[in-house]
Amino acid sequence: MNRTRFHQIFKDFTNKRILVIGDLMLDEFIWGNVKRISPEAPVPVVEVERESYFPGGAANVARNLREFAGDVHVMGLIGTDSHAEHLKRLLATEGINLSCIQQDSEYQTIVKTRIIARQQQVVRVDREKKRGLTPLQTEKAVMQIEKVLPEIDGIIIEDYAKGLLHQELVNQITSLARGAGKVLAVDPNPGNILKWNGVTVIKPNRSEAFATAGMSPSDPVEPVNEDGNLMQVGRILLEKWKTENLLITLGEQGMVLFSGDLPPYHTPTVAREVFDVSGAGDTAIALFTLALCSGASAAEAAEISNHASGIVVGKLGTATVTPAELVHSFENHSK
After folding, report:
1. Secondary structure E strands in the chain
2. CA atoms of 49 and 198, how far apart (whole Å)
3. Separation between Cα atoms, residue 118 and residue 22, nearest integer Å
4. Which of 7, 20, 39, 97 is most buried, by the most CB atoms less than 10 A from its CB?
């Protein structure tokens, strides 16, 4: 895709409105230095210098979108604890619409704490208790979707297998989106087996794709289009999920797109250095969906998504890409 075509698509981003549905989390980062080993056990002692907090999980997808889209709604379940209030403040500061979030005093807001020393992650601590929506909460979620559907251009479902998404809810979301002609993108999780028939695009990473296809993992092959196992996984999943498009992210190899009977389309990574892959998948599905909503073909959307992901892996923490960075990437890599 040349620069002119990119800018035609890019200029429409700010007119688009997206609903993100999925497991909401608070990402906590504790930054410090390691100068000694603990006398109590053979573990490093991290001297804390600062702490930072970011929206995580599906909330990070919304945060990625908000850099570009005109309006972003987020739907999910959080508690009534201090972490929930912190997450809501962060999202509100970003200008994300919180009207579809449900709060439950019996639910523990998911928090992922990463301790980082000298730009290396030492350990991650997860605070979570998996629990899905009650029947009443599911009914309320469907009513909320019906209410915002006329106002949005697309829906992203982000599944972290924490309990929010179940087949009944997925079926209703799919039916509503398809009936309204909306773009529906899914980031699935092999730990939560669901049927996704009739969606616009499904975006697993390589390991998730192999697991869902029931194939043993294999080493990547260059060039990607000659990776026989990966090509077979793509064919299996297109048939299994009956999706219009299948986008498999490949880390350092970029990503590969499978669309119906068309030949697989590989777009290589533009990342110069990989510091942290946290949230790279969130960035990928956010920009792919936004590009589709803005008139891009699936292959063009894959290129835009790939550029955005290549930028975000060069940053530490749960990072996002800015419009200026995306434009700069295309200016430097496109014809």
Report:
1. 17-22, 24-37, 44-57, 71-78, 97-103, 110-117, 120-127, 154-158, 183-187, 201-202, 245-249, 255-259, 265-267
2. 49
3. 32
4. 20
Q: List pLDDT tens digits, range 198-251.
A: 899 999 999 999 999 999 999 999 999 999 999 999 999 999 999 999 999 998
CA 207/CA 304 separation, integer angstroms: 22
Stated length of the chain = 335
Q: Is the pTM of this model over 0.90?
A: yes
pLDDT digits 0-9 by tens, 171-185 = 999 999 999 999 999
- The CB-based long-range contact list for 225-232 (8 Å cut-off, 24+ gap) reads 225/256, 225/263, 225/264, 225/266, 230/206, 230/256, 231/264
Q: Which residues of the chain have pLDDT under 70?
A: 271-279, 314-319, 334-335
Q: What is the CA radius of gyration of the chain?
A: 20
Task: Write the CA distances from 319 to 17, 255, 326, integer angstroms.
Answer: 21, 19, 14
Neighbouring CB atoms inside 10 A of 19's CB total 28
Domains of the chain: 3-333 (3.40.1190.20)
Enzyme catalytic residues: 282
| DSSP-derived 3-state class of residue 113 | strand
